[in-house]
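ok trying this again, last paste got cut off
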Amino acid sequence: MEIRNITRKDTNDFIALQLRLDEETEYMMYEPGERKPQRDRTEAMIREAMGGESFLMVIEDKDKLWGYISAQRGGFNRIRHTAYIVTGICTDYRNQGIGTIFFNELDKWAEQNKISRLELTVMCHNETAVGLYEKIGFRKEGIKKNSMLVNGSYVDEYYMAKLL
């Protein structure tokens, strides 16, 4: 297993990973079959990460990608010191310390890029993820009520942030 920065050659595998995560977890934004893969958009995301403007790291094992973490830097001057995080790890690769490694690498990138605030949202009932985020320094800042509709039920999300 290798945890590494994404490269251009990963475009198709990254799209496949996102589709696989949509199928196997209810904690991500997209429902199964809802995501419309856009190769151009994915390539642009990878280029940004490779250029240092954003952050995108993956887990590779057995010639497949099994998880990722991305951080998108704020695009306007007043929020340029912030980055919004999305992460997803396939079921078979969870609870192995990968999330901690991802976030340690993200902290290094943030420091190098003068980012002092990392932000994310997480479903309140996703106790494993909330526990990881709190362990690595994130704090709950509020609750986004009825944020998502999952399987016919409204779900709340925590707003969480880490100040560096």
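PB: full thing came through this time. The CA atoms of residues 89 and 118 lie 19 Å apart.
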